[in-house]
Amino acid sequence: MNRPTSLLREPQPASAAPRVNVEFGAVLAVLLATGWVANHFVALMPAISDRQHLSTATLDAIFGIYAVGLLPGLLLGGRASDALGRRAVALTGSATAAAGTVAMLLSQQPDVLTVGRLTVGIGVGLTMSSGTAWASDLKGPAGAATAGAVLIVGFAVGPFAGGLITGAGEPGVQMSFAVAAVLVLAAMTVAVLATRRSPTAVADESRGPAQETASRQGITRALSWALPLAPWVFASATLGFVTIPARVHTGLAAPVAAGLAALTVNGASGVIQIIARAANWGPRAGTTGAVLAALSYALIAVAPPTMTLAMSLPLLLILGCASGLSLREGLIDLEAAAPQHVRGTLTGVFYSVTYIGFGLPLLLTTGGSDVTMLVLGIMAILASVAAVSRTMRLRRDSHRQN
Question: Mind listing the pLDDT tens digit for each residue in 244-260?
Fold first, then answer.
């Protein structure tokens, strides 16, 4: 389908390809560091809880307030990057996330952790929406999918490394915050150096009636395909690396166990995205993601309060695959239909809906077993509806071929 071309770069000559590749690599470095700094806190939660004597509900609230900052960051970051350029907004977001991380490095008191996580959320939101749109501008559908996969790698490796660092000794919590901050600052430096001669891309708001109509149609189409997959991205991930580890006794130190759970879930998410691309699964991979989400929620709903390792590992893998496929296909759906001049805004909207799932652990913790079963049962039904409706729609509208 034809899309408005009212933004950004003119078609790049062949001689510009090396520069574009360098810039794309810099964007991926920023997104990798963003995933790391966003999620390494998961592995620090048990150690911080023990040290500060925090209740589970308090710690989950500190974890979840990240989403309160993240949601406006995603929406504002996407829209601002459409108007001001991807690079400026992505680097501003990275600097904000680094500032929040440094605050938590200096103090792990509950109020500082709350403000720090909120600040990190704002920064990560700005960077995710603008950075993903930036990658899409540079490389099209492959750029959008790769951006999502690299974020997931950061989400996976950050908690795993944080768990290892925290489990190594007394100053491990501070060391993990320090490593995260240094990585973000290093990625920012790489991005500045790689893009110092690149033009700043801004939107051209002058469009005629025909372009406006096509733009509105593209927006509606993009969101109608992508948003039904969005809720299952981080609802699945957080069930895997927050809720399930609390119900499994492994004999490992709590930070290491949390880090391994995050590595397993997000590792499965990244691997399944690679498989989907290599095998050319196409848009039906999104249906598979929703089906796997429904299956995993139903299984967790009926699982006993205390799980064995043999029971939990398959659930972690299924949750990771559900998260990865939903993320990949949602981002590609957006790239396939979204007008380029609002791509950042729509990316922010998509990510905002995905992050609603970050509130799930707190809801399940405070609700009790009956509420847990009810909530997960409803989620399983909704994910099933999303899978069925996508299947039916694909039969009459191919949408995209890969």
Answer: 888 887 777 776 777 78
Describe the crossing of helices 231-238 and 284-302 by its angle, rounded to 10 degrees. Answer: 40
Domain assignment present for residue 230? The answer is yes
Of 36, 35, 57, which Cα lies nearest the Cα of 45? 57
The CA distance from 21 to 395, in Å, is 37
Q: Domain with 159 in it: what CATH number? A: 1.20.1250.20
35 in Cβ contact with 153 (< 8 Å): yes
- Within 10 angstroms of residue 394's Cβ, the number of other Cβ atoms is 17
Contact 122, 1 (CB under 8 A): no
What CA–CA distance (Å, rounded) separates 263 from 153?
Answer: 9
Q: How far apart are the first and last CA of the chain?
A: 14
Domain range enclosing 293: 17-199+212-396
- For residue 57, the one-letter residue type is A
Full-model pTM = 0.81
Measured CA to CA, the distance from residue 239 to residue 379 in angstroms comes to 12
Report yes or no: 321 and 272 within 8 Å, Cβ to Cβ: yes
Cα–Cα distance list, 86 to 13, 83, 348, 396 (Å) = 21, 9, 12, 36
Tokens 């890969």 belong to 402
